[in-house]
From TrEMBL:
GO terms for biological process: late endosome to vacuole transport via multivesicular body sorting pathway; vesicle budding from membrane. Belongs to the SNF7 family. Keywords: Endosome. It is found in: Endosome. It holds the Pfam family Snf7. This is Charged multivesicular body protein 4b.
Length: 218
């Protein structure tokens, strides 16, 4: 028997055992629940009996309360047992779910091993290298096809610059031709315009007298 079967058993046996255990726990819980309901009724009856006797028959009232106390103790134990049974049911359900998850993981692992059995890391790397090489070749082919020079469509930047200069010259010439008439300017007079006066100012009187005096002295 394999280690897996030793600890977990076969799938069929596990399912049967888990189902049987769950059924037993559910039956036990139902039985305890009925017993709990019975004790609750008995407690209510004894309480009513104690009230009915009251002060009329104190002895009977005390006996009824004593029986009620005994029923309450039993009820407490049964309620605790029900909690334990329900916790076991939940634990069993979780165990079954964990076992199912374990089986799924195990099957997944075995499937992956089968898929990877014929796949070696070196082969995968070779394939990836081939793919990268083919992508480079495809890119080179695409660049060659889309190159304008291949079809004589290569653009000469100098030629474009000369064409732009010619267009700018045409625009400038057109703007000069579109200029309107010049504004009116004053007409040139036909007669000669007098220039600045050439009359020399008379010499100062004192200078003239000085010259005459010097001539007389000679």
């Amino acid at each position: 028997m394999s280690t897996f079967k030793k600890f977990f058993g076969s799938k069929k046996n596990d399912a049967s055992n888990a189902k049987a255990a769950a059924k037993q726990l559910e039956e036990t819980r139902d039985l305890l629940t009925k017993k709990s309901e019975f004790l609750e009724k008995k407690i209510e009856e004894e309480l009513n009996t104690a009230r009915r006797y009251g002060m009329k028959n104190k002895k009977m009232a005390l006996k009824a309360l004593a029986r009620k106390k005994g029923y309450e103790n039993q009820l407490q134990k049964i309620d605790n047992t029900i909690l334990i049974v329900e916790s076991q049911l939940q634990a069993l359900d979780n165990a079954g779910m964990n076992l199912e998850v374990f089986r799924v993981l195990k099957n997944t692992s075995e499937s992956m091993k089968g898929l990877h059995k014929n796949m070696k890391l070196d082969n995968v790397q070779d394939i990836m290298d081939d793919i990268a090489e083919q992508r480079e070749i495809a890119q080179e082919i695409s660049d060659a096809i889309s190159n304008p020079a291949t079809f004589g469509l290569e653009i000469d930047d100098d030629e474009l610059a000369r064409e732009l200069e010619a267009l700018q010259a045409e625009d400038l010439e057109r703007q000069m031709l579109d200029v309107g008439p010049l504004p009116d300017v004053p007409s040139i007079p036909s007669h000669e315009i007098a220039g600045p006066s050439t009359v020399k100012p008379q010499a100062d009187t004192s200078e003239k007298d000085l010259e005459e005096l010097m001539a007389w002295a000679e």
